[in-house]
Amino acid sequence: MPRFVVSAALTCATLFLSACATVTRGNSEDVVFTSDPTGAQMTTSMGVGCTTPCTIDIKRRKAFSAVFQQGSETRTIAVASKIGSGGVATGAANVIAGGVVGIAVDASTGATLEHMPNPVHADFSKPQSQAQVIAEAHAKKIMQAKAKATAEANKAKNPGQGPTS
């Protein structure tokens, strides 16, 4: 009997922990909406809206468009749902630890996906024809700045632990 209990407990733990991305990242994420100038009315194709700057929790599997309105001007930006860097890392962990069950759970929940661009930024000083490119460049710039800040913070926590020349 004790052998059965241990085996059952291990099986349950393996199944529960096998979906790494679902456990660590969840099936939704905060999507940030900004505009220049601030105060634009933003509505998604899902019917959810807010006044910029704002943040909305959106299911990772949902691709959508965001329509920003400032006076009589509008900017429309497509937001895709793609496998991001965090999803790749947890997907790799599933291959090692979670196996087929973990991969299937994460794929069905969308936990390996990220919204891109995020933040979603509308610049009303530029024409609509440039809105998508500007939004993607803005998101890339923000992500690079966050990565740099994280690297610097880690370096400050662990001086002398960086790569050697």
Automatic annotation (TrEMBL):
Keywords from the UniProt entry: Signal
Keyword Signal: yes
PROSITE patterns from the UniProt entry: PROKAR_LIPOPROTEIN
Low complexity bias (residue ranges): 146-157
Renumbered residue ranges of the record's region Disordered: 146-165
Lineage top rank: taxon: Bacteria
Signal sequence segment: 1-21
Protein name (record): Translation initiation factor 2
Organism whose genome encodes this protein: Roseovarius pelagicus
Lineage start: Bacteria, Pseudomonadati, Pseudomonadota, Alphaproteobacteria, Rhodobacterales
